[in-house]
Design a protein that fits this description.
With about 270 residues, the chain is α/β, with parallel strands linked by helices. It has a single domain, classed as Alpha-Beta Barrel (TIM Barrel), CATH 3.20.20.70. The protein is built from twelve helices and nine strands. The protein has helices spanning about 5-15, 35-45, 65-75, 80-90, 105-110, 110-120, 135-145, 160-170, 190-205, 220-225, 235-245, 255-265; strands spanning about 20-25, 50, 95-100, 125, 150, 155, 175, 210-215, 230-235. Helix 2 (about 35-45) packs across helix 4, helix 2 crosses helix 12 (about 255-265) and helix 6 (about 110-120) runs parallel beside helix 7. The protein is globular, with a radius of gyration of 17 Å. It starts with a helix and ends with a helix.
């Protein structure tokens, strides 16, 4: 697999720091803004980036990311355009970037061709929430051929045996979903339950770094949850901030990028 992601996570661990992953939807709020937004979150201190590949039925996503995906598709964003955005980003940044999306668009594109083009563009790995690990062999084989990490997810209702299997199958890290439900669901009032679950996952998942996501809205959320993991991922809160910035017509693109970078910086 590409060395960028494991090297970054290992380096942060040696320094006693938590990794911060930031999610963006490719093509939202406007296809021409994707490169600007990638650069903004990079400048804001993201340790790695998840670039969402828009899909018409994003099952795991809450309303903010569903809306962003719908807007991007309506604006004409395709898998090819997303890969082109990765290529452009990789020309000037070594920050690890993973593609996150759903299996049907990859099947339509062709698994072999998708993995080849993703690797050629400079992606470091894949996160496919609706692909069960036990059905993932064909895609994992193509990913491995092209040095792409495969990141699988665990959730509070994942049995211990399945967690162990997911740890074996994953490389890069294991994505620990903080709550059973959709992205963007708040974690307020659930901390005791989430803490117990994260402590359990930490004991079981020993091969890979463990990163927590879903429901993280603030720096306080990030610090509280990443106490038990190797880092955290923020998605819906970033998408909402982007929508908020684009709703302010008085701001230039440069100002929007600067403000988004500041928001990302405030999460760590």
């Amino acid at each position: 697999m590409s060395s960028r992601l494991p090297s970054t996570l290992y380096s942060l661990k040696l320094k006693g720091e938590k990794a911060m992953g930031i999610f963006l939807t490719s093509g939202f709020p406007d296809p021409s803004a994707t490169s600007l937004l990638l650069d903004a979150v990079d400048q804001g201190g993201a340790d790695f980036i998840e670039l969402g590949m828009p899909h018409s039925d994003p099952l795991a996503e809450g309303l903010p990311i569903q809306h962003s995906s719908t807007c991007a598709l309506q604006a004409g964003v395709t898998m090819q355009k997303t890969l082109e955005a990765v290529t452009a980003f990789r020309k000037h940044s070594d920050t690890p970037l993973l593609l996150m999306g759903y299996i049907n668009p990859i099947l339509r594109f062709g698994m072999e061709e998708f993995c080849k083009q993703a690797a050629s563009a400079g992606a470091d790995g894949l996160i496919i929430p609706d692909l069960p690990p036990q059905e993932s062999s064909p895609l994992r084989e193509e990913a491995q051929k092209n040095d792409l990490s495969m990141v699988f997810l665990v959730a509070p209702n994942t049995p211990t045996e399945r967690m162990e299997e997911i740890d074996r199958m994953s490389d890069g890290f294991v994505y620990c979903v903080s709550i059973t439900g959709l992205t963007g669901t708040g974690i307020t009032g659930r901390m005791d339950m989430i803490t117990t679950y994260l402590k359990h996952a930490r004991q079981i998942i020993t091969k890979n770094p463990l990163l927590v996501g879903f429901g993280i809205q603030t720096q306080e959320d990030a610090h509280r949850l990443s106490k038990y993991t190797d880092g955290f991922i923020v998605g819906s809160a970033v998408v909402k901030e982007i929508e908020h910035l684009w709703a302010r017509p008085n701001l230039s693109l440069t100002e929007r990028g600067r403000l988004l970078a500041r928001f990302v910086r405030s999460l760590k």
